[in-house]
Structures are given as structure tokens and as C-alpha cells.
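Sequence, C-alpha cells reproduced for reference:
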Amino acid sequence: MDTTESRELAGAPNEIRITRVLNAPRELVWAAMTDPLQVVQWWGPNGFTTTIRKMDVRPGGVWQHTMHGPDAADYPNSSVFKEVVAPERIVYAHGGARENGPAANFFATSTFEDLGNKHTRLSVCMVFDSAEARDMVVREYGAIEGGKQTLQRLANYLPGVLRQPA
């Protein structure tokens, strides 16, 4: 299976859809996405680090984190989990921005499809209030490329987890 590239999928004008096949079982990918100790190891585009203040992965739970860019800019984020169906789907309402930057608000749905043979298709769909809001996030924050880089970082992280003793 091709695990080398994330793809942006065609969707509605107010959506960003990115998918990637990962060389890891679904439960491992789920854990990497929901365990704050793992998320900080790979979350964000290339050159970013992440600090998590709170990550309560359950319906109504809050995820507060700050992404630190390579340009020393901070990007505080706060999300509320709307739906959590382990290990299949996570839905959350996201709000965030670069400090003093325009707000990036959307609903995100991540689905984890077990492809067998220890492969998982991770699909992320971000839905914005309008096409204009989507376009602003693409222009101001590089959301499509950043999403692809984030999933690449996850793909790079997972082999190290697979090698760890149980």
C-alpha cells in the first residue's frame, strides 16, 4: 500500500479533506491521536512543536494546545470533542489562530479505517462556515500543506511506536 503521500480530496467549497494510508494498525493510530503524550511527539506541520494544556478525549471534553512555529509565533488552539467512537471516529469543534492573527474555526472529523494487514486509512475532513473562511485558513495558515505535513509526521512517528516493547 502507498503510505508515502497524503492526498487532498475533492469536497465542498467550504471543506478541506486530507487522507493518508498509514503503515500501522488502527488501534495504534487511534492511540497516537488521542494520547497527549504521543500527540506532542508529532502534531503540527514541519518545524512546529506543540504544548498541550488539556486533552480530555470524550464528548464534551476539551483539548487546549499551543502550536509553536519555527518563526517563534505561537498558535493557541481550543477544541471541544463532539463525538468520540473508539477506534473509528473523532469529531470536534476547533478554534484557533496565530497570536493576533485571524481566527480559524471549523468542525473536524477524523475517521480511522482498518484496511487489514496492519494498515489504517486516516481521513480528516475540516468543514468551515463558508468557502471564504476555508480560503482564508488556506491562505493565512497553509492549512492544506500543513495538514499533509502533520500526517507525514504521524507516519514518521508510528514506526518507533511499533518497535517499542508491549
Residues 143-163 form the longest helix (21 residues).
